[in-house]
Design goal:
With about 200 residues, the protein is α/β, with parallel strands linked by helices. The chain contains seven helices and nine strands, in the order αβαβαβαββββαααββ. It starts with 5 loop residues before the first helix and ends with a strand.
Length: about 200
């Protein structure tokens, strides 16, 4: 389905079963970043941000607003296809019904129900994007272990890492904002300077 404005994109998501969005930033009525923010209030489907802008600030802004990936024009169509397939694989895995027993992962008052794909902190449901969920699940499954940015990127994005620092750091910050009482002094998701990140074993 094609949409020609941010508002039309939101209406399409509301009225149809959409599995992935390629969202251009520059659109009439409502730009792609604002539209992504609105869509995130409706559904957690993967969003790949598309723009001619290559500045780091635009990439950070797009990821901060809920985009799962970002690609700049001009781009190789094969690269876009590969990114779409990667996001759909992750979305299908995270949203699949699963045929086995529930899988719970817990540290302190942070609980992940991997069958329901739900995260709660202090009993309150936390809404994460598919990428945020995958990062938190990976680290919580391996709580207490420190993983480098490359480790996290290659596991979550399922592709070789290439300067992934900015992408991973933005998602880590967003996760902290959602699961931590004080994101600047996190209890769960911590940085080990010069090494990487870990979820604390509490």
């Amino acid at each position: 389905m094609k949409c020609y404005s941010g508002m039309q994109a939101i209406e399409t998501v509301e009225d149809n079963d959409v599995h992935l969005i390629i969202m251009d930033i520059m659109m009439p009525e409502m730009d792609g970043i604002k539209a992504t923010t609105k869509i995130r209030e409706i559904k957690n489907i993967p969003v790949i941000m598309l723009s001619a802008k290559s500045e780091e600030t635009d990439i950070v802004l797009g990821l901060n607003m809920g985009a799962d990936d970002y690609i700049t024009k001009p781009f190789n169509p094969l690269e876009l296809i590969a990114r779409v397939k990667s996001q759909l694989r992750r979305y299908t895995t995270l949203g699949g019904a699963g045929g086995e027993k529930s899988s719970f992962y817990k540290t302190g008052n942070l609980v992940i129900d991997d069958e329901r794909k739900e995260v709660t902190v202090d009993g309150e449901l936390v809404k994460l994007t598919p990428v945020e969920y995958k990062i938190l699940l990976f680290l919580t499954k391996n709580k207490g272990r420190v993983f480098s940015i490359d480790d996290i990127y290659e596991t979550v994005w399922n592709e070789p890492s290439f300067n992934p620092e900015n992408t991973v750091a933005v998602h880590i910050r967003r996760i902290r904002e959602k699961i931590e009482i004080d994101p600047k002094n996190p209890r769960y998701l911590k940085v080990v300077w010069g090494v990487g990140y870990k979820v604390e074993d509490i």
